[in-house]
Design a protein that fits this description.
The protein has five helices and seven strands; from the N terminus they run H-E-H-E-E-E-E-E-E-H-H-H. By secondary structure, the chain is an alpha+beta fold. The protein has a seven-stranded antiparallel beta sheet, sandwiched between helices. A hairpin with a 4-residue loop joins strand 2 and strand 3.
Length: 196
Amino acid sequence: MAEATDHPADDAPLAASKRRAAAVDAATEALIEPKGDTLVGRAVTINRPLPELFAYWRDFANLATFMENVERIDVLDSRRSHWVVKAPGGKTVEWDSVVTDERDGAFVAWASEPGADVPNSGRVDFRDAGPRGTVVTATILYDPPAGAVGKLIAKVFQREPAIQARRDLRRFKQLMETGEIATGARNRRLRQEGKN
């Protein structure tokens, strides 16, 4: 049973929480093995059954289908994977990730192994939302390469994890609800052809 408080429950993603400091402390503890100093939290409701969403996400090879900056994920075994991710300036960053905790149908937590280009840890939670589907919440803790300067450069190039987390969850929602991800590629091509 939940402990009674003077404040109603705050189900907002960490970035929007009214009590962010307390939410950050709680989320950091929930990450199992926190690595990093910048916290990102995003949530989306997807009109699909929880078991289906959890199974798709837990097969880490699937993540590159909707994570825009992920070039590839090599699944090494049931708990370890190798990530190759686009970075600003046409570069890539890599790390090995290990599942630190999980509960089937509820959450997956991970942490990068030592030597990661971008030390990170996080957790993705899946919560039944009744007839609306499933709430998927991603909480990521990371150290941006080159500190604050690297974070600013990543933001300029639209590769900053806070921006990407929002986009990637939106793309996951599109893929799971419609079977495809909407892009502006055709529109850009048509505009370019119209200029010539």
